Amino acid sequence: MPNEFNASILFVDDEPEILTALTRLLRSKDLTVHTAISGEKGLQILEQQNIDIVVSDKNMPGMNGNEFLQKVAEQWPETVRIMLTAYTELNDVIAAINSGRVWSYMTKPWNNDELKLNIQQALNYSEFLAERSLLRHTLEQVQTKRKRNFMKFIGQSTAMQFVYDAIENCASSNASVFITGPSGAGKELAVDALHKLSSRKNHPLICLNCAAIPSELMESEIFGHIKGAFSGAVANRDGAATLADGGTLFLDELGEMDIGLQAKILRFIQTGTFKKVGNNKEEKVNIRFISATNREPFKAIEEGRLREDLYYRLNVISINIPPLKDRENDACQIAQYFLNRFSDIEQKVFVGLSSDAGTLIKNYSWPGNVRQLENTIHSAVVMSEDPLLTEQILASQLQLNQTQMAELLRKKSATAELESIYQASSNPINHLQDNKIHETSAVRSLAEVERAAIEHAIALCHDNIVKAASLLEVSPSTLYRKIQQWQD
Ligand SMILES: Nc1ncnc2c1ncn2[C@@H]1O[C@H](COP(=O)(O)OP(=O)(O)OP(=O)(O)O)[C@@H](O)[C@H]1O
């Protein structure tokens, strides 16, 4: 019997000849056939083996087929259950199907081709169930793994989950890390997390902002100097390289560093050795390098501001911090965090953000990223006289006019509508109603929506009520009852 996955089937019947005949009929390299002479023996096999389909006789001494299949339904709900029965007992089978105990039935005596076809359908259904449970399991794993916060980061967007995972995975390595991302997105928080999660955490993390230090002082800032090395060098001084020994050295805005000095940095990274300014003695240190830029590194290389060899030396592992606007609902979560923090600092009491303030935060593009959000909430907390942080106070801190604010709030309804359409279309039942999804303007009663969903599911399953019920995740008896009600 052709089958995409290696399946197993269990036949339960008190007549050994029937078991032998069924085994012979279905013998195939893709299908393992088990047999049991009673319901009790069948349960023992189910305890030990992974069984995809159970086919059970109804009338058996001891535990009858109904009791046996009821137990299977309770303990192994993913196993497809079929009842083998005489034509005269069809009423009992319908009751068993309606209760959800049985998925389908086969009649005795059987027609070989029909029986094979029936088993093939059960195999397809079993495969569908297996895929569904795998999907559920994977989704559950993804959901439970999803972090709401990470180190000092707030936010549970998918984009940030990649960042959290990358930081966690490479924190313990000594390989150099290059962090990219727009200004204010959280590159420094990433550096902090990388250091604190590494074995170097008890040693210093030294940060040097290459854009903030004048180029003539940079060499001394990094390597230190000895007394008299240049005018103003009145005493020996250790630089960042010495201070960071055993720990991490963070070079921020690397592209702003003098190109001549970049050659010395390259040598320092390659050998771990350096000379203080004015001294010929080499010193050796053990440092992990992290660098960052909020500019496009290849553009800096093209423009001759960043040495290509230095870039590749530092960019062993790269981490990109996405802009705030690409992080789903993170802005609202971060805003709430800053609201709590700044109301404590400013000793003011807030009950929260108004719903429109939340919409504005969600829809605004935050070109200055988290830093801009932080400053906006801080100033709004200071300026607000209301215990509810409103959209008006935020708009005034962001210097938005009424039209811009209205536009941001209007986006809400469009987004909400799109989201509801998306949700409707990603639901397998509503997906069947494709042509009805766009009728959002005509509000339909719940009963109408329910009936349409049921009718579409039944049509999709070619009038197989049991399958339709399974798709709709209700019992077949519920569907029969509903259909009966429409006909009354
Ligand atoms: N996900 C976050 N949750 C909470 N606070 C954050 C988050 N990301 C950043 N911040 C805060 O936002 C501010 C800016 O972050 P950070 O200094 O790390 O940005 P940056 O990318 O290094 O910026 P720049 O490129 O301008 O140096 C900091 O106060 C930081 O604590």
From TrEMBL:
Alphabetical GO biological process terms: phosphorelay signal transduction system; regulation of DNA-templated transcription
This protein's UniProt keywords: ATP-binding, DNA-binding, Nucleotide-binding, Phosphoprotein, Transcription, Transcription regulation
Entries under InterPro entries matching the protein: AAA+_ATPase (IPR003593), AAA_lid_NorR (IPR058031), CheY-like_superfamily (IPR011006), Homeodomain-like_sf (IPR009057), HTH_Fis (IPR002197), P-loop_NTPase (IPR027417), Sig_transdc_resp-reg_receiver (IPR001789), Sigma_54_int (IPR002078)
Limits of the Response regulatory domain: 8-123
Coiled coil, from the record: none
Residues modified as 4-aspartylphosphate: 57
PROSITE patterns noted in UniProt: RESPONSE_REGULATORY, SIGMA54_INTERACT_2, SIGMA54_INTERACT_3, SIGMA54_INTERACT_4
SMART domains registered for this protein in UniProt: AAA (SM00382), REC (SM00448)
Protein name: Sigma 54-dependent DNA-binding response regulator
Lineage: Bacteria, Pseudomonadati, Pseudomonadota, Gammaproteobacteria, Alteromonadales
